[in-house]
## 1
Amino acid sequence: MPHRIGEHTLVAKAPNGQQILLLADGFVARGRTTTLDWENWQLDRLRLAGYQVLQFSSETLWKQPAKTCHRLAAQLAGLATIQEEE
């Protein structure tokens, strides 16, 4: 896992061994160099390392927990369906 990302994420492992990263609110900007391009670069690094990244908003989770959890569950189920088809 890239440096300083693990402290802000949840990682799950699918039965087939694929790692799924649940990422709340993107990455925490630390200084002038952490721009949107930097965040996209971090996401690309994670995907190249084999992680499936599912992002969500902590504000939405707090305001609409059921809706956010249902959306994440649907995305997880979608990943499982895609893998079964492969």
## 2
Amino acid sequence: MIVKGLTKKIIYDITRIIVFLKQISMKFIIILSLIFLQNDIAYSQSIVDSILSRVSQNLNRLKNIKYYNTRELNYSSENYHYISKWTSYYDFQSTDTITGFKYQIEDSTLKQIFNGTEKFELDDKTKTIQINSSPDKKSFNGLSALYNSIITLKNVLPLIINDKSATKAFADTTINNISYILLTITMGKRRIQNLGKGFDAMATKSNLIYKIIIEKNSNLPFEVMQINDVNNDFIKTSFTNIETNITVPSELSWYYSTYTNDYKPPTGKVTPQLALNGSLAPEWTLEVYNKDKILSLTDLKGNVILLDFWIKNCGPCIQSVPHLNELQDKFKGKNFKIISINSYDSREDVSWFCNKHNTNFSVLLNGKEVAEKYGVNGFPTFFIIDKEGKIIYSGAGYDKSIQSEVEHVIEKAL
């Protein structure tokens, strides 16, 4: 009996030891797995940085580059799809330019040239020339052909390489039997600037992800895909027919005086000027989109009014909606009205926009002529009208500075 008891105890102790060893083993395996995972991530990111370094060095060695550029905007969440195409030539040999490069960019109707000092556009449809003899850096930010372009990559790759907050991964891929490297870079709530000189902080729920495809043999970019982790919206920029270190376009092609026989400055067209502060706001009568109702400026007499001119396919217009909703709530019960005037979109598109972005202020239709009366030349454009019907604020565009200024003017007027 004693032997049997000892045997049972030994078996029990051995069992406990085995369980204990298994627990230690599992913890050890988990720890090792985490170490290997971290090492794998670090290794992957170092490989990506190495690839980006090769591409960056390659781009910085170029004297010039010419390619066929296609950009596809596909915002399915905003019911918007558009494709643009250009032939782009960039020259990096001049050191006295504002941007660090010169360019000649051409699509089916427009040729845009920057010679390092002057910036001008040649319109083949109207045979007109627009000249900016003193461009600043900001005047290049809106150039569509620059968005996620090779210029962008040339400038931003060193920043991405040194960015420890970005998550980076790589994989091999094949397109049309050609070998490529696919780099995936998650930037969080940051967007790469047009010229690639830095990043813009984005007030969005989604994180931005850049997928950059590199051709293995040339170490040159083939495609940049900008996506997010919330929906299927994307911007795809591709570069084909790439030529590097080629013959420079003729010297005369860089100067607007070469084209003045065939292209003339626009005549009879004056850029609209915003209605002046201190002047009486032009009268209007428009239909409210979701009500069987007509509204006029006269109907709102005695209120401080924020007029918002907008169109559907406009990023800043979309970004302004949450703030307009906040203003509506903040000044509720006071003599304050937000009137949002759509310039030319259909009733269906206006309805889609309002439902999509949850507008809780009055939206009016068919405001093209009213926008012209107020001198609106871009979207969004805001006006604040005081209780006497005078314009006390006007401004185009939307950012944080405009947001705070608009709110301050409204509070003061109330």
## 3
Amino acid sequence: MTEFETKDFWKALILYGLNQATYKIALGKTLFKLCDQGYTDVPWDVLSKEFLQQYINRLTAGEAMPQQSIPARRTRMEQIVSAIKSDKLSVDGAISEVGETAFGDVIHRFHNLGRDESFQGMFYRFDFGKSLTLTDELQKIIQTSRNELEDELDARWGLLEGAFCIRQGNYELANDLRLIYLESGYDRKNLTTNIPFLQGYQGNICFYCGEEIPTTDMHVDHVLPRQVIKHDEIWNLALSHSLCNEQKSDKLVGEHFIVKLIARNENIMGSNHPWKRKIIMALGQTPRERASALSSHYDRVRSILGPYYWGGIPSYNPASDPFYRRLITVLNNGEI
């Protein structure tokens, strides 16, 4: 039977582990850097700072590449680095965000290789949120095989980015468009206070399936995904069932839902509610301007999300949705 060296176990984790994102590779490079700096017991903020630096280096040097396989999403690290670049987040604030939100999977799963759990704790042990302890095995492979293993980390990172880029189409255009929303965005608000207001214009009817929503299952959803547009403005909010909300997730909706959203907003414009003024400021003075602005937002989000698409539940038919038909034919009187 072949005897494997510690270096072989490291190579197995880096080269053969399943990677939906580049976090494992970035953590591997982080561990190497922390060893170079003389650490054994690593405070969480030090770990967060070095992990962040790996992504700053990667995403600001030359042409940035996607860091995970799902076309519609960016990793938390991509979001944090973008927020730094657009001055939405300080470096100190970013380090804190990394420590609080970026390590949920990678710290726990770094040692995973299929169902084999014999690797657990081989290269580090951790007290999640507090500290990480580097093992003698890690120190040993760095001392004996540093250049070889770091070259493999860099090659694996580039290989993953290339594969993700093939899936994601025009990544640079998508990033430029995302930045537009990030620069004007803000932290998520509590949306439950909007339920009574939305009920006044939607009743207890789900925006997506046209069926009645029990009061215990009522969700406020962003029609255009919040992970792209980064705001909670009323012109993009609708009530839905939890099931429809979960199925839609952060996917792009079908165009018939955008037509429906335009109609719903014009319904609001027929009232004297304070939100009327906010919709005018966000989308325009006239029905045509507002429809055009919302359609432009939809086109931008489609450019960002690409084929990550949800057309609604299979049984939904816009033509038979009485709420939808009433909005189009009665409330708007064909003006849009």
